Amino acid sequence: xTLVDVAGLVPxxxxxxxxxxxxxxxxxxxxxxxxxxxxxGSTDIEGNPVGEGGSEPMEEYQFLLNxxxxxxxxxxxxxxxxxxxxxxxxxxxxLSIFLLDQLSGIGVNEQHVNxxxxxxxxxxxxxxxxxxxxxxxxMTLAGTIRALLFPISIVANKADCIDESSWDExxxxxxxSGGILVPSSAEAELAxxxxxxxxxxxxxxxxxxxxxxxxxxx
Length: 218
Hints:
- The structure is a single chain.
- By secondary structure, the protein is mainly alpha-helical.
- 48% of the residues lie in helices and 10% in strands.
- The strands form 2 sheets. It has a 3-stranded parallel β-sheet, with helices on one face.
- The longest helix has 21 residues.
């Protein structure tokens, strides 16, 4: 497994805000995503410390999904009028070909495209012909493709500070989407690593066990 630490994401990244363009281009190299969330509510949606009353875990999770979906919609819309004309002249198959051409650069295949189109038909039965689709239809299309293309698991940092109801809500959502939710505490991990380096404990990084060193024997 190769882990890629990509650039941070802020609201509006799909429009180029912050380092959004770098973040989103990095995704083309990835087969899955691990999102680190501060589940304590001590930071805002952009990761700035606020003490308390910050973003909710579900809000931070959903923010990433919305940015990814909007990014995919942006790629589709860049030549949407041309694709619509092809559909009008060549039929529905041309829509699949157009979407595949537009999105192949980020790893989308024919299965992803077909699933996305089926999702639009199921969720927007009155959507009409593709060239009349609006943002709702395109976001549904993009969301289905994104879910297949980038499975997302969550590392829940500061998990010792989350309330039970928020944890249950996040856990249910992640499991339903096929991801994994892992509780963590970076601060505790850092303290253990420093204690191990100082010889105060014997730490095995491959598991969660450690032993307090008997300093009397030294």
